[in-house]
Amino acid sequence: MDTSKSVNYRPARVDEDSLIAEHFYYLWRDNEIPAEGIIAEWLEVSLQFINRVRQELSYQGFVAELSGEVIASAGCQLFAGLYPHILTDNYRKYGYIWGVYVEPPHRNQGIAKQLMGMSMKYLKTIGCTRAILHASPSGKLVYPSLGFSNTNEMGLDLPRENGAVDRSN
User: Fold this and answer.
1) Distance CA 67, CA 127 (A)
2) Count of CB atoms within 10 A of residue 49's CB?
3) Is 102 helix (H, G, I), strand (E, B) or coil?
4) Distances (CA, A) of 23 to 103, 113, 140
5) Which CA distances in Å does 126 have to 50, 57, 81, 84, 111?
6) Has residue 82 been placed in a domain?
7) Is residue 168, in this structure, part of any structural domain at all?
8) How many angstroms separate the CA atoms of 95 and 79, rounded?
9) d(Cα 36, Cα 43) in Å, to the nearest integer?
10) Comparing C-alpha atoms, which of 76, 21, 71, 69 is closest to residue 47?
11) Is position 166 within any domain?
């Protein structure tokens, strides 16, 4: 059933942070991270993170509602960087999109694309020159159609001493 026309898209409210955190948890579970691979305090850690980046990095969440129920969410913020920020904002002010999640019965209906569009528009309004994200396996199918391209980021799984591989990203 195509529900995309009856879906209401809007900025998330602060009282919906727990729901966004829950979607973030399920995003990892849907990407084959077992429950024991997620810390028991995931909700508290997620809520603290959202609160901090709202204050420090212009975080904004977006939700999609169907019949008054939130069925999808996404978040975006200024990208804090992985190294010292020495470039001017007019040259490089990145925004980061994360936690794009659509509940399983509502997937493949354009809902994630709508949330991505809202996130990209928001990042542009706060002066970002580029939007970046790390795609999940299922997201890799969506993002190229929105203009995202593969970048020069590379990764290497490093085995732990016990032989296990860290697949946290």
Assistant:
1) 34
2) 16
3) strand
4) 8, 16, 18
5) 18, 10, 17, 21, 23
6) yes
7) no
8) 5
9) 14
10) 21
11) no
| Tens-place pLDDT, residues 36-62 | 999 999 999 999 999 999 999 999 999
pLDDT in tens, 100-147: 999 999 999 999 999 999 999 999 999 999 999 998 887 888 898 899
**Number of structural domains found in the chain:** 1
User: How many other CB atoms are found less than 10 A from the CB of residue 128?
Assistant: 22
Using alpha carbons, select from 87, 169, 84, 94 the residue that is nearest to residue 126: 94
Report how far residue 151's alpha carbon sits from residue 82's, in angstroms, rounded to the nearest whole number.
15
CATH no. for residue 15? 3.40.630.30
Range of the domain at 140: 4-146
Q: Return the minimum-mean-pLDDT range out of 4-8, 90-94, 116-120, 123-127.
A: 4-8
